[in-house]
Amino acid sequence: MRIRLFAFALALATVALPLFAQSAEFPSAPRDTAVSVPVPNASGGAATTAIPTTTIPFVDLTLRSPEDGTEVAFSLQLLLLLTVISLAPSLLILMTAFLRISIVLDFIKRALSLQQVPPNQVLLGIALFITVFVMWPTIDSVWNDSLKPLSEGSIGVEEAYRAAESPLRLFMYRQMAADPENIRLFMAMRGLPKPETLADVPTWVLIPAFILNELTVAFKIGIYLYIPFIVIDMVVASILMSMGMIMLPPVMISTPFKLILFVLVDGWTLLTEQIVKSFL
């Protein structure tokens, strides 16, 4: 019985296989899978769902000679604007209160033995907005006396530069008024005569003197911030040593106590207040 069933199945497969091969034969040329189907309610019935051909616009940058002096002035102003934009980060960091504030915030983070909290991006954002708060009178003066008249066309580029330079020079000099030693240092290194007034100090001398002064002040503030937290570290290390817990890192125990102390004295408010007052 099994032999008969096997013979019948073999005969059926022999007959059906050629038919299946004939029906499943591949076409000689591949057919495009995107089939155009008429869209209902289309005018003339010619519209289909085929993907339309997109045209990318051609961008051409050409150079030509200026026709008059106005175009030359506009090209120079555009070049000057691009130069200022490229130097804006350096100007923001080195010629404003951002340098001192960012260093002090990094000191307090290290004094608290914090590695990831708050992140560096958050600290830089805090420093940026505190800088805007401190520098707002200077920014307002630069806008009203320089940028706004320049945009209205009432003054030229050179006059706008002088008007923007004056408030920044005054701000930098105020930070060194109590101790102008850095100005004397850079004036002496260039062999310049002793200045009688602020106007006698060149800007290229005032800027490096201001940077050196800000670094000195920021490190002085950082030392004062470190002292109470170093005391906590020493006390915790001494207690662990006396208890024989030599293998236990003291930072693991002292960090919570430093955070508790910082929160109890409202550290962020005190720190921000003192930083802002240091510029006044």
Oligomer status? single chain
Question: Overall mean pLDDT score?
Answer: 77
The Cα radius of gyration reads: 38 Å
What is the structural class? mainly alpha
Largest sheet: none
**DSSP helix fraction:** 55-70%
Q: Could you say which overall geometry the principal axes of the C-alpha atoms support? A: elongated
Task: Write down the secondary-structure element order.
Answer: HHHHHHHHH
- pLDDT < 50 stretches: 15-26
N- and C-termini, Cα separation: 110 Å
Number of helices: 9
Strand content: under 5%
Descriptive keywords:
mainly alpha; 280 residues
Describe the protein in words.
The protein has a domain at 72-106 and 119-222. Helix content is 68%, strand content 0%. It starts with a helix and ends with a helix. By secondary structure, the protein is mostly helical. It has helices at 2-23, 69-94, 98-111, 120-152, 157-175, 181-189, 203-242, 250-264, 267-277. Helix 3 runs antiparallel to helix 4 (120-152) and helix 7 (203-242) packs across helix 8.
Q: Layout of helices and strands, plus pairs?
A:
Elements: H1 2-23, H2 69-94, H3 98-111, H4 120-152, H5 157-175, H6 181-189, H7 203-242, H8 250-264, H9 267-277
Helix pairs in contact: 3-4, 3-7, 4-5, 5-7, 6-7, 7-8
In short:
With 280 residues, the chain is mainly alpha-helical.
